[in-house]
Structure formats: structure tokens, C-alpha cells
Amino acid sequence: MMSRILIAAQRLRKAGVYAMALAAGLVSAWAVREHVQQRVQALEAEARTPVVSRLVAAYDLPAGTQLEEVHLAVREIPEQWVSRASIDPLDLASLLGATLLADVANGEPLLRGNVTFNPPAPALASRLRSGQRALTVAAADLGGLADVLRAGDAIDIYVSFAHRQRELTVPLLQGMRVLMVGGEADAEGKGGNITLAATPDEAMRFVAARQAGVLTALLRHRDDAAVVSGTPQSDLASLIGLDLEPRTVPGVSILYGDRLESRGAEGALDMSMQAGSKKDRP
């Protein structure tokens, strides 16, 4: 009986040793696993970069685009790379309706400095039609009318010049559209510049007329497309109805022997009267 008890005690002792060894192994494995997981998490935390959400272009947007929701998207960007001028998605409502001042590529963050609610005036070249040029002239060349001109006005330009000993005034350019009015005045307070839309031919005619004559501008209605034809009688005397200079009577040629002499009509008339008086003498 005692021997059986001793044998059972020895078996229990051995089983306890095995159980303790197994438990120690399990505890060691668990401890190693926890240590590894904690180390991995620590490394991941060190490698993980904080990100923030920002508004970006949903696709390539050219300058001048008026922003709407379809133009924008939300993208997470590493916090260390985010510009202070970037826009949070929560501020979307304050961005709608703004105009882009520069091109924005697809996925590129929108910056507050690149948008405005007061779009700049369009470029001067955008107001020109195909084949036109911007002709800048001194306001003094157009007379006093230049002081009251505004962009969008239409003017006719006349030129006065001397031609074959006559002072003529003829229409030079008609329906010229004013693109811009501005510029610095000269020391006498006159001036500034007027920019007109002109074809190359019109520009050359204006430059030539400015060198050779006196220019005068007349304001016309914007919708007036009538063309003023140049009249052949464009000197002052003809325009106000004065008689032209008397026509000269062609002279009469008289042959004296071998000598040819020319006299005017008045001289010829005197000679005829003298010849008649001689015939009347007895």
C-alpha cells in the first residue's frame, strides 16, 4: 500500500515538473510575442507621418477658372509638407465662386494666394479681333475730344493738309474703336494716351497723316456703321460755297515776220480794237 502511494507521488512530482516547464515555456513565448508586438508598434509609430486633409484640383484647372465644387477634391497630405496657405475642406464654402489667378495641375493643393474674388481685367490683346493691332496715340494728336473718351467709344478721324496749293480736309479713319484711355500727362497737364483697335493699313495711314497734317477726332454712336465718303471739294472755300478763282483765258499767238509772240486775251482784244479803228479812218 505504501509502495503504491510512493509510486503515485513520484509520478505526480514528475508531472508537476513537466507542467511547470510547459507553463514556463508558454509564459516565455507570450512574453516574447508581446515584446515583439510592442517593438513593431513603436517602430510603426515612429515611421508613421501625420497627415491632414486639404483641397486640391480635381483635374487641370487653367487660370481664370471660376471655382465650383466639381473643380475640387479632398486629399490627405503629410502634415510636414502642407503649406500654410493651403485650404481646409471645411472652408469649401468660402472658396466657391473665386477665380484662379494661376494654372493648377491635377492633384495640386489650392493656395489662398492663387485665388481672388476680384478677377483682374482681361488682357488688352483679348479685346482685339483677328487681324487688328493696338494703336496707341497721344491724346494731344486728337484734339480736345480725347479728354472725354472712354473705352468702347467709336471715333472718326479727319486730317487737314496742304495739297497742290490747296488746304484740304478729308476723312482719314472711320469707326475706330477705343480700347483704353490712360497714361501720364505731360508737364503742361495735357496728354495721356488713347489706344485704338486698328488694322495694319489703318495704323500706317494714321502715322503718315500725323506727320503731314493736322488730325481731328469726332465721336460717333457705337452702333453707327455709316461710312462718310470723301468729297472732291474739301477745301474751305468750296465747303462754304465761295466762288473759285476766275479761270484764265488762254493767250493768243501772233506771228511777226520770223518772230512768234504770245499775248493774253486782253492784249489780243486791244490789237483787234486798234485794227478796227484803223479801218474806220478815211
From TrEMBL:
<dbReference type="InterPro" id="IPR013974">
    <property type="entry name" value="SAF"/>
</dbReference>
<dbReference type="Pfam" id="PF08666">
    <property type="entry name" value="SAF"/>
</dbReference>
<protein>
    <recommendedName>
        <fullName>SAF domain-containing protein</fullName>
    </recommendedName>
</protein>
<dbReference type="InterPro" id="IPR017592">
    <property type="entry name" value="Pilus_assmbl_Flp-typ_CpaB"/>
</dbReference>
<dbReference type="Pfam" id="PF16976">
    <property type="entry name" value="RcpC"/>
</dbReference>
<dbReference type="InterPro" id="IPR031571">
    <property type="entry name" value="RcpC_dom"/>
</dbReference>
<feature type="domain" description="SAF">
    <location>
        <begin position="52"/>
        <end position="116"/>
    </location>
</feature>
<dbReference type="InterPro" id="IPR036732">
    <property type="entry name" value="AFP_Neu5c_C_sf"/>
</dbReference>
